[in-house]
Structure formats: structure tokens, C-alpha cells
Amino acid sequence: MIVVATADFEVYHGVVTELRDRGVDFTTIEPGDEWPDDTDVAVIAAGETVEIPDGVDLVQADPERPRRAVEAAIAALRGETGRTIIGIDPGERPGVAVMHGEMVVAAFQVPAADAVEVVHREVEDAVNPVVRIGDGARLVGSRLIDDIVDVPVELVDETGTTPYLGSGARGMGDVLAAVNIARLEGEAITSRDVEPTAGELQRIKDRSREVSDTNRAIDAELARDVAEGTLTIEEALAEHRGDAESESDGGEDENAADTDSTTG
Question: What strand order describes the sheet that includes 26-29?
């Protein structure tokens, strides 16, 4: 049983909310009250002094990170001591799965430009973490590898990691692939130099035309930015529209100047 025993309201509210959201059995007591006989894990606020019974695992919760405390409490309850593993299925919106031992504790799907921030946040304070990145979407993957710092990274053969998606599971493929990638050992890597092929850039340009309201494709430079994960297709289209409008405004100004000159 997980028991929350803290006088810190912020910690209490955050931890209890997380536990309820996950459907975890728990109880709460006031610090100094008698502990339930079946207490296995005690959750208190970081820096708080609370007398804990012998043999009970202690988790100290940061009020700004209740989820991390709950993950630690659940792991302790299950007797898990496994490392934190993050699996990434790279792409325009990478799937990201966070595992503690054999348990998936968090999952995300974010723009490629935000994936590194998610990784660094999730490994903060983790013991012996590792990041495993699928070898597909080579350009985005190589940028992620270069930008992830102070964490071991492995490149994983992602063949067969995307599962069949049945009815109602649309949109979950990248996240489920990230879970499978996290479970596979890969090759340790610190950088990966990849140049986009003409075919890869053309596919991005074709995709931009498909999603464009004006049926216009982005240029090769913006396609390269999308390929490397620094821009999404939507952001590249916005920049492309802005450049086109600037050129149009400039042309109008020049024409107006020519007219004024002729008139004078």
C-alpha cells in the first residue's frame, strides 16, 4: 500500500491527483498519525521530517514534480529497480515513450523541435538513463542524436516496431513504436551525419503542397529544415507564405517608385 503522509498541501494535492488518475490504491494520513499495517511505500514532501516505519520505502516528492514521485512510489511498490529508458520513433512528430524497468510510465507525441526538451526533462534526476532512437527518419533522428546531451544514446533497428493498428487506434502508431524501440538494445552512438537525398526533399515538398491551402510547395531550403526537424511542415509553409508576401510587397513598392519617377 502507498501511504501519503505530508503537511505540504501542494505535494499532497499533486501526488493524490496523480495516484487517482492512475487508478492506484493508496491512503493518506496526517504526519504523526499511526501508520497502516500494510504500508509498503511512504510519500512525503522533500525536506520534510516524518518518522517512517522500518522496512517501508520512502519517496520524497518535489511539489513541482508529483508525477515523478508517483512513478518512484509505484516502482518501489512493485520492487522494480530498473533503469529509465526513453524510446523515440523519429519523424515530423516523434513518438516518445518513457519506461521504468518494464513499465511504461509516460508517453508523448510532440513536434520534432520539442522532442529534445521532453527527453531532458524526463531523464532529469533519473538513475542511469538511456535513450533509444529508431534508425528511420534519418534526418530527424540524426538531429536528435546530436542535440541530446549528457545521456547515453543508442541507435535501434526499428524494423517491425510499428504494430498493426486496429479500429479506434488511429494515431497511436508512433507512440507504440517508441515503446517497442525502448525495449530493444541498440548501438551506442554520439553523432550521425546524414545528408538528405533529393528524393527525401522532394517528398517533403510534395507533402507541403498537399497540406497547403494554396496548393504551393515550400522551397528546397525550407524542405531541408523540415527534414532536419527544425521546422514542421506547417511552420515552413508559414515562412514560405511570409517570404512570398514580402517579395510581393517589395515588387509593388518598386513599381510605385517607377511610377513616381515617371510622373516626376
Answer: 26-29, 2-5, 41-45, 57-61
What pLDDT score does 135 carry?
94
Quickly tell me which residue has 487506434 as its cell: 169
| 84-188 CATH choice from 3.10.20.30, 1.10.101.10, 3.20.14.10, 3.30.420.140 | 3.30.420.140
CA dist 41 and 140 (Å) reads: 41
Spatial distance between the Cα atoms of 17 and 30, rounded to a whole number of angstroms: 17
| pLDDT digit string, tens, across residues 98-114 | 998 888 989 999 998 89
Whether residue 76 is predicted with pLDDT greater than 80 in this model: the reply is yes
Q: Which long-range CB contacts under 8 A does 212-218 form with residues at least 24 apart?
A: 212/237, 214/241, 216/240, 216/241, 216/244
Residue 128 banded pLDDT, cuts 50, 70, 90: confident
Domain ranges of the chain: 2-78, 84-188, 198-263
Coil vs helix vs strand at 195: coil
Same fold yes or no, 2-78 and 84-188: no
Pair type for strands 2-5 and 26-29? parallel
DSSP string for 71-118: HHHHHHHHT--PPEEEEEE-SSS-EEEEEETTEEEEEEE--HHHHHHH
Residues of the chain above pLDDT 90, percent: 58
Mean pLDDT of 102-131: 91
2-78: in CATH 3.40.1350: no
pTM value? 0.69
